Amino acid sequence: MDPNVLRGRLLLAIPKKGRLHERCIELLNGADIQFHRPNRLDVCLVQNHHIALVFLPAADIPSFVGKGNVDMGITGHDVILEAEMESFVTETLRLSFGKCALQVQVPEAGPVQSVEALAGKRIVTSFEVLAGRFFADIDDRAGLVGDTRTSIEYVGGSVEAACALGLADAIVDLVESGETMRAAGLRPIATLLQSEAVLIRSTTPKHAHITPLIDKITARIAGVIAARKYIVCQYNVLRSKLSTATAVTPGRRAPTISPLEDPEWVAVSSMVERSKMADVMDQLVSVGAEDILIFNLDNSRV
Ligand SMILES: Nc1ncnc2c1ncn2[C@@H]1O[C@H](COP(=O)(O)OP(=O)(O)OP(=O)(O)O)[C@@H](O)[C@H]1O
Ligand SMILES: O=P(O)(O)OC[C@H]1O[C@H](OP(=O)(O)OP(=O)(O)O)[C@H](O)[C@@H]1O
């Protein structure tokens, strides 16, 4: 591709494969960012905005954004810390997917119960910076020096195999459902951090003229995330029960209250977190609300 085509465009990086890729594509579709990615090309133009998408390994996105080589990106909070880019990127939105924990895991049947028992042992991980820092603290507390300190070995994937192969006494890797960990006969003994996918921008952007477009895309993505997270709950309730009912559905800012033809009744409409929907409906029934309706949101600006 002719680099001139990219001049002046906002560069937005998303993971080219792996756990976050599909979810990012869905998010872009929801935000009406239209593109066609020619077969395996890592850069493609957005048709309806002055944007180019850059498909990169999730782990490389923090430094591309932090160094200002691309303007914004989507990646995991974990890889921002691993790349030591937290001072160079700003996490503008949590995206509510890619949720996982970075954990120290040991063989299920083995004797190790605490991370202190791993001081001086062999750790295999794809997170050598975070694991290195974590075990350096433990080694310091144990007074270990030189060759006696914990060994941290990097592998690029299939970390769980290291213990079974006799290459490690423990691993440090990501866990979501725990299926991979259990299948490998491992159990967790410590959590280094919790992660989820985040939208990031450079702390010191190189292209100031692009900031309004970054803000617009951020607002669109925030709207898609909020539309997934919230539903609208509408119901009728006796005016005398209104304060009890609206305590159950306070809304994001405040509920909308409309009069009904019967002056003793009002209609209430309020945003409610989708995960709390069933509980909220039960509570509304118990305070005497009637005609409780739930509406999905297609999109939003909040
Ligand atoms: N099991 C999981 N559940 C949810 N999110 C995950 C999970 N595993 C990884 N992630 C998130 O997705 C990011 C990318 O991980 P993934 O395993 O997809 O890497 P990848 O880009 O395919 O690289 P590779 O497979 O080469 O290590 C991680 O940094 C983390 O934020
Ligand atoms: O707790 P679970 O739901 O089983 O998920 C955990 C697994 O997911 C990630 O790997 P992924 O499958 O993305 O592949 P990778 O090993 O190639 O990174 C992670 O490295 C674990 O292996």
TrEMBL record:
Its annotated compartments are: Cytoplasm
The broad enzyme category this protein falls into is transferase
Lineage top rank: taxon: Eukaryota
What is its pathway?
Amino-acid biosynthesis; L-histidine biosynthesis; L-histidine from 5-phospho-alpha-D-ribose 1-diphosphate: step 1/9
GO molecular function, a single term: magnesium ion binding
- According to its UniProt record, the EC number is 2.4.2.17
How is this protein annotated for GO cellular component? cytoplasm
Residues in domain Histidine biosynthesis HisG C-terminal? Answer: 227-299
Which residue numbers delimit the ATP phosphoribosyltransferase catalytic domain?
Answer: 58-221
Kindly state which reaction or reactions the protein catalyses.
1-(5-phospho-beta-D-ribosyl)-ATP + diphosphate = 5-phospho-alpha-D-ribose 1-diphosphate + ATP
Kindly indicate whether the keyword DNA-binding belongs to this entry.
no
User: What family is this?
Assistant: Belongs to the ATP phosphoribosyltransferase family.
Supply the HAMAP family for this chain.
Answer: HisG_Long
Task: List the protein's name.
Answer: ATP phosphoribosyltransferase
Q: What organism is recorded for this protein?
A: Russula ochroleuca
